[in-house]
Amino acid sequence: MIKNKSSEDDAFISPAALRFVEGLDDLKGAAMKVGQLLSLLDENALPKGWKTALTRLQSEANSRSWEEMHPLLKKSLGSSLNQLDQIETEALHAASIGQVHRAHYIPSDTTVALKIRYPQVRESIKSDLNNLRRLFKLGAFINIRGDFEDVFKTVEKMLLQETDFLQEKSFYEIYFEFLKGKNEFQVPMIIDEMCTQDVLVTQWVEAESLEKWLATFPSLQKRDVISHHLLKILFLEIFQLKVIQTDPNPGNFLVTEDMKLVLLDFGAAQKISAKLVAQYKKLFLATMDNNISQIFQTAYEMGFLVENDTAQSHDLFYETVKLSLEPFFPEEYSWYKCGLVERVRKIAWKFTQSIHFRAPPKEVVWINRRLLGNQLMLENIGATASARQIIYSAIEG
Prior knowledge:
Blueprint: H1 15-27, H2 29-38, H3 50-55, H4 66-77, E1 84-85, E2 93-94, E3 98-105, E4 110-117, H5 121-138, H6 149-162, H7 165-178, E5 185-186, E6 199-203, E7 208-209, H8 210-214, H9 220-241, E8 243-245, E9 253-255, E10 261-263, E11 269-271, H10 274-288, H11 292-302, H12 311-324, E12 333-334, H13 340-354, H14 362-381, E13 384-385, H15 387-396
Parallel strand pairs: 5-10
Antiparallel strand pairs: 1-3, 2-3, 3-4, 4-6, 7-9, 8-11, 9-10, 12-13
């Protein structure tokens, strides 16, 4: 079961929502992932008391027993398992697709992170998503109406990708090569010969998750440094690497003692088309220049607006974009109690209503999810950074 926490928010959690969340946590895989995605929806899109419960799936998932995971490990690695010893049977991290154990890799005398996929999770994805489709069609627990079939297909494709650890290994290697020489970042090295479709083995990095690091009450100066790193990697991903990590969970970012930002978990990484990168660049620059005609032209190109949308929809889109880029207008911006995510959500919700909940292009969904996740992390850190300078540097290359 999801761990029981006592907080002011608990008074507003629906008992039905908690039962639903516990069920998703037990199922793992697609059901849990969709629950995590639902937690990012606007409060108005969910019944009262559900958002807080769903948010718990982001950080409070429970691990499976070693007795359940060990046979899968033996089957996947075969005789190669003999190259590992000192395997810690208690998982250090659990997520929707698999869980992580610490171990010792004998050939190089290295401590490694051993990520094991849950049994049968790949096989359950289609059936879990079909069950959730029925809930959406019935309008059973969300207040949004519309055709979500494209969204479900995209989620299914992403989830199947996340269950393929050889695919994730390839993204680790892409990020590792790209960030060579950028000393503020670290990507764990892959132990290539130990990786299979069900098991991923990487170098162990001594660091704390972003959430735990913040709980140590780091100085404002240190928080400013990490905020700079988070902004820089986001825009390097979009404008230079053209690959993004679409699961912006604080658990996927670690902080080392010497203030490096460690990047983990590339199962949800997605390549971005050069066309979309160019469109985002154009939209950003047009907004910064307050070039309204260019903003709307780019919005049509990206599928945010269509020609017959109302004047109100156009105005709300303009307000949404302008507010979203608030941190990039001044030379420095403070996220301390800025409440930007909530303000953007409110205006974006009005815009979404005005276009009758028309689903945005699939690629845009994942980029916007990454942008939103980064914004939430910056607000939690409450630091100050030169966002304008960082994004222009990334755009200019």
